[in-house]
């Protein structure tokens, strides 16, 4: 039963196997966990499969304020008669609902972890239940439930952090891949999976190998990862995968020391890929800063790291014309010079578009 308790944090519904085993072992009509996590507006109410809906609802309601379940001392087993005051109409309603669901008595224990959660583990049933034995089992299970709930709390916190991080990566059009020494994919973020579907510059090759479309980039990537496999203090390396749309990769060495059973990763690759083409970005610059199309093309070229002379040559402009355009661009974008222009464009709402 302890295995079911610890594995219950990975089940949906939570702890369903454990509660079913507890109900069967005690002979109770229903076994429940009512979980109140810090900061949650709603309590999590869990019950064994065969529990009467009326009994489950009553046991869940009984753990809410202002009823005396909140005053239960942690680690002590309480009988139903200790918790329901027959003079209180609310308590009488709970008792009536329990009886209608086949529960004439119950045993419950409170497990707490300050700042994290309050939980109530209970069994309810009718005649024939060995309540002293049930109470002894609840006392024995209490510390293990606290440990399982701490694991659950940690998993939920990490799940929330992962959600926030994933949203940031999504907004930045960024994802990550871990690679082994042969450039085979060990693990990949959901954002990177989407990026692979959208672009032709990177793909999953044979044996799940990360394969750039460019043979030159493929050789460069292979050499870098091979170097990372030989030493873990190599400096990060950047690779441009595409100019239009702009897709860049940053490679860092890593040592995978986890016990996950996967192949060991030697490198992590962060890939930032623009979803839109250069033409689309120029159109956005026209709308955002009221640039002329010719000015927008020059502004985008400068934002990609070109000097004014290089941008003029790439766009077929004279250097004098490019300098004239640049002055207009600086004025319209509120930039004091070329570095400021790059910052204004790359940190504008275009980054989130």
Q: How is the CATH topology of the largest domain named?
A: Beta-Lactamase
* Annotation, overall tally of beta strands: 12
Order of helices and strands: HHEEHEHHEEHEEHEEHEEEHHHHH
The major pleated sheet works out as: 5 strands, antiparallel
* SS-derived structural category: alpha+beta
CATH superfamily of the largest domain: Transcription factor LuxR-like, autoinducer-binding domain
Salient structural properties:
Arc Repressor Mutant, subunit A, DNA binding, 3 domains, 12 strands, 353 residues, 13 helices, Beta-Lactamase, Sig_transdc_resp-reg_C-effctor, single chain, 5-stranded antiparallel beta sheet, alpha+beta, 46% helix, 20% strand
Tell me about this structure.
The chain has 13 helices and twelve strands. The protein has helices at 2-7, 16-26, 53-61, 80-83, 89-100, 131-171, 190-198, 215-230, 278-289, 293-303, 308-315, 319-333, 338-346, and strands spanning 30-37, 44-47, 77-79, 105-113, 117-125, 174-179, 185-188, 202-204, 210-212, 237-243, 246-253, 267-273. It has a five-stranded antiparallel sheet, sandwiched between helices. Strands 7-6-12-11-10 form a five-stranded antiparallel sheet. A hairpin with a 3-residue loop joins strand 4 (105-113) and strand 5. The protein starts with a helix and ends in a 7-residue tail after the last helix.
Overview in brief:
The protein is α+β, with helices and mostly antiparallel strands and 353 residues long. The chain is 46% helix and 20% strand. The chain is built from 13 helices and twelve strands.
């Amino acid at each position: 039963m302890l295995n079911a308790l610890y594995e219950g944090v990975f089940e949906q519904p939570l702890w369903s196997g454990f509660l079913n085993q507890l109900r069967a072992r005690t002979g109770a009509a229903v076994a429940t966990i009512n979980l109140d996590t810090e900061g949650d507006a709603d309590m999590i109410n869990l019950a064994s499969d065969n529990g009467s809906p009326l009994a489950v609802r009553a046991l869940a309601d009984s753990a809410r304020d202002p009823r005396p379940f909140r005053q239960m001392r942690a680690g002590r087993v309480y009988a139903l008669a200790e918790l329901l005051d027959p003079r209180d109409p609310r308590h009488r309603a709970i008792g009536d609902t329990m009886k209608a669901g086949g529960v004439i008595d119950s045993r419950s224990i409170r497990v707490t972890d300050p700042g994290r959660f309050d939980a109530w583990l209970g069994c309810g049933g009718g005649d024939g239940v060995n309540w002293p034995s049930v109470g002894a089992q609840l006392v024995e299970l209490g510390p293990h439930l606290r440990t399982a709930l701490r694991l659950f709390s940690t998993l939920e916190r990490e799940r929330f952090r992962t959600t926030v991080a994933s949203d940031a990566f999504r907004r930045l059009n960024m994802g990550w891949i871990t690679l082994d020494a042969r450039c085979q994919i060990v693990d990949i973020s959901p954002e990177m999976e989407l990026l692979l579907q959208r672009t032709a510059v990177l793909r999953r090759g044979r044996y799940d190998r990360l394969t750039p479309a460019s043979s030159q980039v493929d050789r460069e990537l292979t050499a870098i990862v091979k170097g990372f496999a030989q030493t873990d203090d190599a400096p990060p390396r950047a690779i441009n995968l595409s100019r239009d749309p702009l897709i860049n990769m940053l490679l860092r060495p890593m040592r995978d020391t986890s016990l996950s059973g996967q192949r060991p990763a030697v490198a992590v690759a962060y890939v930032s890929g623009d979803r839109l083409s250069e033409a689309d970005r120029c159109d956005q610059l026209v709308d955002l800063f009221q640039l002329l199309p010719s000015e927008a093309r020059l502004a985008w070229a400068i934002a990609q790291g070109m000097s004014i002379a290089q941008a003029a040559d790439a766009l077929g402009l004279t250097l004098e014309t490019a300098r004239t355009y640049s002055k207009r661009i600086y004025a319209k974008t509120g930039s004091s010079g070329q570095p400021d222009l790059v910052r204004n464009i790359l940190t504008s709402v275009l980054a989130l578009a």
